[in-house]
Design a protein that fits this description.
- It comes from Maricaulis virginensis.
- By secondary structure, the protein is mainly α.
- It has 3 domains: about 1-45; about 60-155, Type II secretion system (T2SS), domain F (Receptor-associated Protein, Up-down Bundle), CATH 1.20.81; about 165-399, Up-down Bundle (Receptor-associated Protein), CATH 1.20.81.
- Helices cover about 75% and strands about 5% of the residues.
- The protein has a 3-stranded antiparallel β-sheet.
- Helix 7 (about 140-195) packs antiparallel against helix 11, helix 7 (about 140-195) runs parallel beside helix 16 (about 340-395) and helix 11 (about 255-275) runs antiparallel to helix 12 (about 280-290).
- It starts with a strand and ends in a 5-residue tail after the last helix.
- The mean pLDDT is about 85.
């Protein structure tokens, strides 16, 4: 079904216009004639004719797209009708165009997995392969529901990290603003009280006061430098190599590293378990899970695990030899393999680590907030102490 825009004449009503859904233009004209409308202009509605809330898709938009597709297929909607419904109601231009591309590919006889591999942009790499497994097993709605569930879990994990760091980041930004205010407006006033000869001031006080005087006298240059730093930071953030290096650095940090590790294990276990329950062979399921990870070091380690399994080594021995997985996780995997329920055990491991990730996020928040306050208080306090030292040095008062 397609949507057509028409203009025509209706007996007793004059000129009318509107939209109508039909299989083709001939069918649209037939329906209009049945409504006593003589169409003098009719054309298929294009995506460009619509107004959208936004042009580019956000991660939550992609999750909603996949969840809606799973629900429509589970309700018994044919594939073409499902994509027509999604494309017609989609508020994001990018996803509306994606739905239209997939619908046209399906009408030409392309399989859904192949159409998704060609048209989906910004979706996880495991989506087309899990869809292909769903096609092979004849349970496509379940495969799409599993994909939507994993995407939802990824969104939750990212939201937990953002929530854990949001308030400390706000405190840090406000602390920087407070320090800049002190340097630009408070320190220069003290400098005028101290006079031009500041050679007798304590070293720390002299550094603070000279910095404030310089910043006040060169506000434009300092602003340009700050803008350059922000721009350089943004450019670095777009560099894949820098992001990968920063991610590996965070993985090695004491508190954040354990949080990221738990999140990676949860993602690996869930995708592996989902693929296995969908009918994927073990090595292929592990390859899908490996590709979904964010740590290059972990991807390399799990690639070694797959090679060891291919050579005949049990999965638990390979995990013990090449990864940092704890003994409890490895024993659970061993138990699942021995009981021929590895998929269920991996999903259980995923749930266990997802719960642990939430708990770690709470602990990270409770730790980051006082650290941010302590850092800001230390910086502001050091500046104040330097100013007090400068004033007392004028009167030879020992602190």
């Amino acid at each position: 079904m397609a949507t057509f825009i028409y203009k025509g004449l209706k007996a007793g009503s004059g000129e009318v216009e509107g939209r109508i859904s039909a299989a083709d233009e001939v069918d649209a004209l037939r329906q209009l004639e049945a409504q006593s409308i003589s169409a003098f202009q009719i054309r298929e509605a294009r995506l460009a004719d619509r107004r959208y809330d936004r042009n580019r898709a956000r991660p939550q938009d992609r999750f909603r797209f996949m969840r809606q597709l799973a629900m429509l297929l589970r309700a018994g909607s044919p594939l073409l009708s499902a994509f027509e419904t999604i494309g017609g109601d989609e508020p994001c231009r990018e996803l509306a165009e994606t739905a239209d591309e997939i619908r046209r590919a399906l009408r030409s006889g392309t399989r859904l997995s192949a159409a998704m591999k060609q048209s989906l942009r910004g979706f996880p790499d495991y989506v087309p392969r899990l869809v292909e497994l769903g096609e092979a097993t004849g349970d496509l709605p379940r495969a799409l529901n599993d994909i939507a569930g994993q995407m939802e879990q990824d969104l939750r994990a990212a939201a937990e990290v953002r929530n854990a760091l949001a308030y400390p980041s706000f405190l840090a930004v406000m602390g920087v603003v407070a320090v800049l205010f002190i340097f630009l407006f408070v320190v220069p006033r003290f400098a005028t009280l101290l006079g031009d000869d500041r050679s007798q001031l304590p070293g720390f006080s002299r550094v603070v006061i000279e910095t404030g005087v310089w910043l006040r006298a060169h506000m434009v240059e300092a602003g340009i430098g700050l803008a350059g730093l922000i721009g350089g930071g943004y450019m670095l953030s777009q560099n894949a190599g820098f992001r990968s290096g920063l991610r590996e650095f965070l993985f090695r940090m004491p508190v954040i590293g354990s949080f990221l590790k738990a999140s990676e294990i949860a993602r690996w276990a869930r995708i592996s378990g989902t693929a296995l329950s969908g009918g994927a062979p073990l090595l292929e399921a592990l390859a899908l899970a490996e590709a979904s990870l964010t740590s290059v070091r972990w991807q390399q380690a799990l690639a070694e695990v797959r090679r060891a399994i291919r050579s005949g080594e049990p999965i638990e021995d390979a995990l013990r030899a090449y990864t940092d997985f704890d003994s409890m996780t490895i024993n659970l995997v061993k138990t699942g393999r021995a009981a021929a329920s590895l998929d269920e055990m991996l999903l259980f491991v995923a749930e266990m680590y997802e719960t642990e990730t939430k708990d770690r996020a709470k602990r990270l928040t409770s730790l980051a907030e006082p650290l941010a306050v302590l850092f800001i208080a230390s910086v502001v306090g050091a500046i104040v102490v330097s100013l007090v030292m400068a004033m007392t040095s004028l009167y030879d008062i020992a602190l």
